[in-house]
Specification:
The protein is an alpha+beta fold. The chain has helices at about 35-40, 45-70, 85-95, 105-115, 130-140, and strands at about 1-15, 15-30, 160, 165-169. Helix 3 (about 85-95) packs across helix 4. The relative contact order is 0.07.
């Protein structure tokens, strides 16, 4: 057996974001071989194996059913292509990982918002069903637009900020 130690950080607790993340250390003993598990008489009993495997199967089935139910209810998983708030959060992560904004989340949020031309939502992450057209567009590889889309290759000089939205010159 080997004694191990892991340091980790909690940023959320009880469903809430912590104002100040808490760093803590976890010490534990880890088995190195199956022989150590057998010698410690720590093998699962048959009924425990059944419970573990059934719990795994239930979790897998629940996740699959949830994905199908969300799709049937026209929910689309937010990602970089379909959700501006995800774009903001990703840019915030990038800015926070650098030296300039490492300890300045407010400054990084402001820069991300200005650069993308997107305001931060005041909501606490509530998802709403998408319109049927948006769902069809998200499911297809082709855009659901009737007009052909022109290729977009803008340089920063071609983009002008106009009251929080972006417009090509």
């Amino acid at each position: 057996m080997e004694n191990k130690s892991v340091e980790t950080k909690a940023e959320n607790a009880w469903g809430y974001k912590l104002a100040v993340p808490v760093t803590y250390k976890v010490d534990y003993s880890a088995y190195q071989t199956i022989e150590e598990v057998k010698a410690a008489n720590d093998l699962l009993k048959d009924d425990e194996v059944i419970r573990v495997r059934n719990a795994e199967r239930l979790a897998t089935a629940r996740q699959k059913a949830l994905a199908e139910a969300l799709k049937a209810a026209n929910y689309i998983k937010p990602n970089l292509e379909n959700d501006e708030q995800v774009q903001l959060k990703e840019m915030l992560k990038v800015l926070m990982s650098g030296k300039k904004y490492k300890n300045d989340e407010a400054g990084a949020k402001l820069v991300a918002s200005q650069q993308l031309g997107i305001e931060w939502a005041n909501e606490s992450g509530t998802l709403y069903p998408k319109a049927v057209e948006e769902v069809a567009q998200a499911d297809s590889t082709e855009p659901v637009s009737e007009t052909p889309s022109e290729p977009v290759s803008e340089t920063p000089a071609q983009v002008e900020e106009v009251s929080g939205s972006r417009r090509r010159r």
